[in-house]
Request: fold
Amino acid sequence: MNYDDIVIGAGSCGAVLAARLSEDPARQVLLIEAGPDYRSIDETPDDLLHSAVSLVDHDWGFTAEATKGRSIGYPRGKVVGGSSAVNGTIALRGDPADFDEWAGRGLDEWAWDQVLPFYLAVEDDPDGAALAPQLHHVGGPLPIHRVPVANWQPFHAAFHDACRAQGFAVSTDLNAVGARGVGVFPRNKRDGARMSSALTHLADARHRANFTLRAHTHVDRVVIDAGRAVAVDVIREGQRERVEGRRITLAAGAIASPAILLRSGIGPGASVRELSVHCHADLPVGRVLLDHPSAGLPGLPVAGIEHDLAIVTEIGVRYRSATSIDDNDMQLCLATMFDPEQMRGFMPDPVAMFMVGAVLMRPRSRGRLSIESTDPFVAPRIELNYLDDPLDGARFIEAWRLGRDLCRTEPLAALVKCLLVDDATLADDAALGSLIRDQITTTFHPAGTAPMGRSDDERAVVDAHGRVFGIDGLRVVDASIMPTSVRSNTNLTVIMMAERIASWMTTDPIV
Reply:
């Protein structure tokens, strides 16, 4: 069959796009996913519904170089629902200033007043609507839940009160415009279950006669003929197949989408030709990789704290570091790993512990992504270059000392047995910076590997609608196209972006 639309990747963006495009019964839509498909919540494995983060059974198995010579695991969801099926479910919007920055690059379609209606359309947020009806919506596909104060876990409630004692303002809605301070994280959950795009957007699409979903299907490359994307080469059960489509959209995520572009001959000309691939479009694919690095100050809790072992993060802080000119350049949260089984595989001798986790939401350091083989089963090379900029390290040092102070502030202090970093190290910039460098890891927010921009922007790979420059009939719609990262967890924003671009794709002629 020759499809009208082929969408590659059934994750946070791909599921949204396929669902919206298939609302037109005259349009034949194919959605391709490398991982398995669970067709209903009843079929979905428990780790995809109730784990804090699922990093084992539905993962691509990527590794990344966090700092020079130090590699870390780099989880990405390999399942219908993509990383929205395995993530930590925090549903934070980007800051209006993030979209002002995008508009400043000539992307007026992505100014705050343009994207807010799509944030609203996505969410089913009765708690938010009760707080601010003009800023929140009830009835969208994505449920948003906030744990009420009465149900906070004791350790997290104590963290909240310690933050207040240290001078942080209380935020009743961390998704309010300009929200800062300490508050409960909004999450995309319903009745305690993670609600991925597989369970939200695809639920209504599955019964449509014009919608096809092919799971366990690995995409090799997009076929380009005379400057137009005409087909996709895929591998299923060891067999190669070519699938033709009038319009092809990559929604495989900020790691897999640029790798597919590079194998297809779209990327930096010299790098593509080194792979013995014909360069169809010389574009800066993978030249920049954005991420939010994280490092947590570890400690041990006192024995006997009442706690739901499935709860890891509940309360968060958004704040500006002392050396920053940007609001909310940092995020702080308490992570309670009180179930040693959750830590098996991460620690040689798991124990109940906690971390005051610091996340750098406006890093100055930049990574890059490349491929070293055209074999589609060879993982891309991911270089994160965390802490390359000294100011990034200084902000982490400040955050860890803030974490120390919080752990010594009542009522949290009464629940802390000890910190696992001694006072001498915490007081020494060089020693603490070295420890942070040894520990720093990802918060699973890669972005920016095929960024949006104007046609005269040498940094850009796609236009404001996700259309790849120089190639007709090909788009990228996922976190790859963020020109700068938002200062929040990325999942809610990429779902919003998919809804925004789907509104154009449903009316744009396929030419």
Observations:
- The two ends are 19 Å apart (CA to CA).
- The domain at 147-184+293-362+387-439 is CATH 3.30.410.40 (Cholesterol Oxidase; domain 2).
- The chain has a mean pLDDT of 95.
